[in-house]
Amino acid sequence: MDIAKASPFLGAHSKAVLVTLRSDGRPQSSNIVYHWNGEAALISVTESRAKTANLRRDPRAALHVSSNDFWQYVVVDGTVQVSSVTTEAGDPVGRELLDVYNAIASDPHPDPDEFYAAMVAEQRLVLRLEPGSFYGTVL
Q1: Does the first or last residue of the chain, that is N or C, have fewer Cβ atoms within 10 Å of its Cβ?
Q2: Which residues contact residue 41 at a Cβ distance below 8 angstroms, ignoring those fewer than 6 apart?
Q3: How remote is the C-alpha of 93 from its chain's centroid?
Q4: Quick check: pTM over 0.70?
Q5: Confidence of residue 39 (pLDDT cuts 50, 70, 90)
């Protein structure tokens, strides 16, 4: 499967399972929400999560996205870039987190300043999954 076939499916969904690798090589899976920007999957996470530590150590990951009826799916595997943690309200990472939120939510966040402060307090950052390959079953 190529990006031209996978991209419409990925763009039509926002819930997925992210699979990272533990230090002993076993997989660790996490239910996440993501935004597909046509080139990469963007995911908001906190610094303290296992998936963040796993990806700082080994950036290989897979994102499994299923259709609502479960019978169609796309898996994106590739390498993840881990951003820095947002540390100041409205910094570049905070603005990217707001962009990701607004792309996933049905309505834009009503108070960006409140959002930025919450992201700093939660020690959030952005994961960017750059695809290496795609596979699955999409009609």
Answers
A1: C
A2: 10, 16, 34, 35, 63, 76, 127, 128, 129, 131
A3: 14
A4: yes
A5: very high
Asked whether the predicted pLDDT for residue 63 surpasses 90, the reply is: yes
List all residues 6 or more positions away from 42 whose beta carbon is below 8 Å from its beta carbon: 34, 35, 36, 96, 100, 103, 126, 127, 128, 129
Distance CA 89, CA 106 (A): 23
Backbone angles phi, psi at 119, to 5 degrees: -65, -40
pLDDT > 90? residue 58 = yes
Among 49, 55, 53, 46, smallest CA distance to 124 is for 46
Domain extent listing, the chain: 3-83+124-137
Displacement of CA 120 from its chain's centroid (Å): 18
CB 65 within 8 A of CB 59: no
- pLDDT band (50, 70, 90) for residue 139: confident
Q: Which two tokens stand for residue 49?
A: 């999560």
Quickly name the fold that domain 3-83+124-137 has. Pnp Oxidase; Chain A (2.30.110)
C-alpha to C-alpha distance for 87 and 49, rounded to whole angstroms: 17
**pLDDT over threshold 90, residue 110:** yes
